[in-house]
Amino acid sequence: MKANIQGIFKEKETILKIQNTLPKLFHIAELESSRAGKIGMEVGTIRERIIVAFLLYKFGTTNVETEIPTTETEMDVKVFGCPISIKTITGAVNGVKLVWTVDAAKAKEFSAKYNPGCDMIFIQINWSNGGGFYYIPKETQIKALETIGRKEYIKLPKEGTNPRGVEMTGKAMKYLLSQPETLKIAINWHKEAIEYKPFKRWIELWEQE
Q1: Rounded Cα–Cα distance for residues 194 and 147 (Å)
Q2: In Å, how far from its chain's centre is CA 87?
Q3: Closest residue by Cα to residue 44 from 9, 102, 96, 111
Q4: 86, 119 in Cβ contact below 8 A?
Q5: Are 194 and 28 in contact (CB under 8 A)?
Q6: Cα gap 88→92, rounded to integer Å
Q7: Do residues 100 and 113 touch, judged by C-beta distance below 8 A?
Q8: In this predicted model, what pLDDT tens digit does every residue of 88-129 receive, in sequence order?
Q9: What phi and psi values does residue 169 have, to the nearest 5 degrees?
Q10: C-alpha to C-alpha distances, 120 to 101, 112, 134, 140, 181, nearest whole angstrom
Q11: CATH of segment(s) 2-208
């Protein structure tokens, strides 16, 4: 039920847990996905797992469904039967990926037929400059799509380029974040010094055998 998830934003202890722990875990995600000082695209998948792990920690394995079919283009997890999409971005609120595709025809088809089908957990990471943990109901997304229009809500990849998929526009995202139904936990994103050794756990597992 949505009420259970939305309750997170009223619980002081949970709010503090998110504010204090999420920056550290997302920092580790960056370190884990970095090569020669550059953060790889896999950081998004690691961040998603961190959020799913939080939901499992908070609500228990019986109330969180993680085995989502790969055919699901939008849903990342189910909590109390409620489908949720998880999106994260670093920096300013710009375009957010809706679906990955390298086929221009499929991108246009997706854009024409797309209607929000999930609530959204949206994380804006802005190191040393704010950001937050947001919950955006499906109904708010539907209202935004109807209000600003499909062409302003969805951005197709440019033809003749290497398409990375279909995006929700920065305009749409900013509209969603401004709505009263959107819930927010403000986060002071900061990086603590962490001694991270990417191969340590794998070495330890080799040593166990």
Answers
A1: 45
A2: 2
A3: 96
A4: no
A5: yes
A6: 11
A7: no
A8: 999 888 888 888 776 777 888 888 888 999 999 999 999 977
A9: -70, 160
A10: 20, 21, 8, 10, 12
A11: 3.40.600.30
Can you give the C-alpha Rg of the chain in angstroms?
Answer: 18
Query: Pairing state of beta strands 183-186 and 131-136?
Result: antiparallel
- Give residues with Cβ within 8 angstroms of 6, minimum separation 6: 135, 183
Please say if the pLDDT value at position 163 is more than 70: no
Q: Of 187, 172, 88, 170, whose CA–CA distance to 131 is shortest?
A: 187
- For residue 38, the model assigns a pLDDT of 86
The per-residue pLDDT for range 7-49, each reduced to its tens digit, is 999 999 999 999 999 999 999 999 988 887 788 888 989 999 9
Q: What is the mean pLDDT of residues 124-136?
A: 91
What is the C-alpha to C-alpha distance for residues 96 and 144, in angstroms, rounded to an integer? 15
| Domain extents in the chain | 2-208
| Sign of the torsion formed by the C-alpha atoms of 38, 36, 163 and 48 | negative
Does residue 33 sit in helix, strand or coil? coil
Distance CA 208, CA 121 (A): 38
3-state secondary structure of 202: helix
- Within 10-65, where are the H helices? 12-32, 43-59
Are 74 and 98 in contact by the 8 Å Cβ rule? The answer is: yes
Return mean pLDDT, the chain.
89
